[in-house]
Specification:
Blueprint: H1 11-24, H2 26-42, E1 49-52, E2 55-58, H3 59-87, H4 91-108, H5 117-140, H6 142-145, H7 148-178, H8 190-216, H9 233-245, H10 249-279, H11 287-316, H12 318-338, H13 342-370, H14 377-406, H15 409-427
Antiparallel strand pairs: 1-2
Length: 435
C-alpha cells in the first residue's frame, strides 16, 4: 500500500495500524509489569539500598523516582509532540524514531547490573519515554486512516492484538526462565541470564513486528517544515481546552476526582510486581514463576472484569460504578498491607484484575460522554492524557518518598487507601443521573 495510492478505510492499512499494538505491547507487559521488576529485585538480594547521585536510595524508591521523572518529561513533551504530529506531514519518521530507540533501549537492558547501574537506568528511562512518546504518533494515525464508524472497532482490535502478542512473548520468556537449559542457557545463574535474554526478545519483537505497520501506513505527500510556533501548538490547545472545561462544572469535578484516584491506581499497577518480589514470602524456587503467573492472571481476569464493569455501569450509571470501584480498590490496598503468603498474593492478583481494566475503561468513556459537542475531540483527550501522566508523577513520587523514608512498601500502600477513599468522595459531588 505504501507504494500505491492510499485509500482511507482500506482493510490492509487498518490491519497494519492495529498490528503495531501487537508489536509494542510486549514492552508494558514484559518490561514494565513482569520480567524486568523481577530481575531488578534479584540484583538487590544482599542489600536493598544503593548509593547513587550522592544519595542512598532504597531500590524500589529509586526505580519509582526514576519512573516519576520520566512521566514528568512525558507530561511536557506529549503536548509538544501532539502539536508537531498535527502539523508536520511526515509523522512516520517520528513513529519510527521512537520505535527504534525504544527497541534498542529494551535490548540495552541486557547490560543492566549493579556495576553498570547508570547505563542500565538510562536504558530503562529511555525505553519508557520512547514507548509512551511513540503512542502519540501512532494514535494520531487513527482518524487519518479510518472513518468514524470504523475507529471504535479498530481501536479495540489493536488492543486485542496487543494483548495476544504480549502474552505469547511473555509465555515464551517464562519458559526460558523456567527451563533455561532447554534453550542452551547455562552458567552460574541461568535463570537470571534468561531474564536478560528476554529483554533482547522484547526489543527484537517490537522492532521486527513494526515493519508490517511501517510498510503499509500511508506516507504523507505534503511535508511541512517545523517552524517555531508549531512547538507551542499542543500547549496552546491544552490551555484552550482548560479554559473551556473550567466553565463546565461536571467535567471540572470529574477531572479532579480522576486525577486523585488515578494517581493511586496507576502507581499500584506499576509497583505491583516490585511489591510481590520484595514483600511476599515465596516458597523455594517459586518466586519468579509465581510473579509472572500472577501478572498473567491479572491480564486474563481483567478481560472479564471489564465486561462485568460495563454491565454494572449500564444499570446504575458510570459515576456510581466508579465510586464502588474506588471503594473496592481501597479495600484491596488494606488487604495488600497484610498479605504475606504466595496464595494470598494470587488471590489479590485475581481481585486486582477484576477491577483494573474496568475502572480505566470506564473513566475514559465517562470523560468521553461529558465533553461537549466538538470536532476537536483530540485536544480534549490530549488534556485527559496529560492529566493522567501528571497523576502518575504525583502517585509515584508519593510512593517513593514513603518507601524511602520508612523503608517499607507496605506503608506506601497504606497511603493509597485514603487516596481511593478521597476519589470516591469527590465523585459523589457529581450529581448527574445520566452518568
Amino acid at each position: 500500500m505504501s507504494k500505491q495510492e492510499f485509500i482511507k478505510g482500506d482493510s490492509k492499512v487498518l490491519n497494519a495500524w492495529a498490528f503495531y499494538d501487537w508489536a509494542n505491547s510486549v514492552y508494558p507487559l514484559v518490561i514494565s509489569s513482569s520480567v524486568f521488576p523481577i530481575y531488578y529485585g534479584s540484583l538487590f538480594l544482599d542489600d536493598l539500598y544503593i548509593d547513587l547521585f550522592g544519595f542512598n536510595f532504597k531500590n524500589t524508591a529509586l526505580i519509582s523516582f526514576l519512573t516519576a521523572f520520566a512521566f514528568v518529561i512525558l507530561s511536557i513533551i506529549t503536548p509538544l509532540l501532539s502539536g508537531i504530529a498535527d502539523y508536520v506531514g511526515n509523522k512516520m519518521s517520528f513513529l519510527k524514531f521512537f520505535c527504534y530507540s525504544g527497541s534498542v533501549s529494551c535490548m540495552g537492558l541486557y547490560f543492566f547490573d549493579l556495576e553498570n547501574i547508570y547505563i542500565g537506568l538510562f536504558f530503562y528511562f529511555f525505553a519508557l519515554i520512547s514507548f509512551w512518546a511513540s503512542l502519540v504518533f501512532y494514535n494520531s494515525y487513527l482518524p487519518d486512516i479510518a472513518y468514524k464508524d470504523q475507529q471504535d472497532s479498530l481501536s479495540a482490535k489493536g488492543y486485542a492484538l496487543g494483548y495476544v502478542g504480549s502474552v505469547i512473548l511473555l509465555l515464551f520468556n517464562l519458559s526460558m526462565v523456567m527451563f533455561p537449559e532447554s534453550y542452551g542457557i547455562l552458567g552460574e545463574n541461568p535463570e537470571l541470564l534468561a531474564m536478560k535474554y528476554s529483554f533482547i526478545t522484547v526489543g527484537l519483537w517490537w522492532m521486527i513486528c513494526s515493519q508490517y505497520t511501517f510498510y503499509h501506513l500511508p506516507k504523507s505527500k505534503e511535508k511541512r517544515k517545523i517552524v517555531k510556533h508549531v512547538f507551542f501548538n499542543g500547549f496552546k490547545e491544552l490551555k484552550e481546552v482548560w479554559d473551556e472545561l473550567k466553565q463546565i462544572l461536571i467535567i471540572k469535578r470529574f477531572l479532579i476526582a480522576f486525577f486523585i484516584y488515578s494517581s493511586a491506581l496507576q502507581t499500584v499497577l506499576l509497583i505491583a510486581t516490585y511489591f510481590g518480589e520484595q514483600e511476599i514470602n515465596w516458597g523455594e524456587g517459586e518466586k519468579t514463576t509465581g510473579l509472572i503467573v500472577s501478572i498473567l492472571l491479572i491480564q486474563l481476569v481483567a478481560v472479564f472484569g471489564s465486561i462485568i464493569t460495563a454491565k454494572i455501569s449500564n444499570k446504575i450509571g458510570n459515576i456510581q460504578t466508579l465510586i464502588i470501584l474506588n471503594f473496592i480498590w481501597a479495600f484491596l490496598c488494606i488487604g495488600a498491607y497484610f498479605i504475606k503468603s504466595s496464595i494470598e498474593f494470587y488471590i489479590a492478583a485475581a481481585l486486582v484484575g477484576m477491577v483494573m481494566g474496568g475502572i480505566q475503561a470506564l473513566s475514559r468513556s465517562t470523560f468521553s460522554k461529558m465533553i461537549p459537542e466538538t470536532d476537536n475531540t483530540t485536544s480534549y483527550f490530549s488534556f485527559y492524557d496529560v492529566s493522567q501522566k501528571v497523576s502518575i508523577v504525583f502517585g509515584m513520587t508519593l510512593f517513593a518518598f514513603v518507601d524511602q523514608i520508612t523503608g517499607s512498601m507496605r506503608n506506601s500502600i497504606l497511603v493509597f487507601i485514603f487516596i481511593f477513599l478521597l476519589g470516591a468522595i469527590l465523585l459523589r459531588r457529581i450529581k448527574i443521573k445520566n452518568y
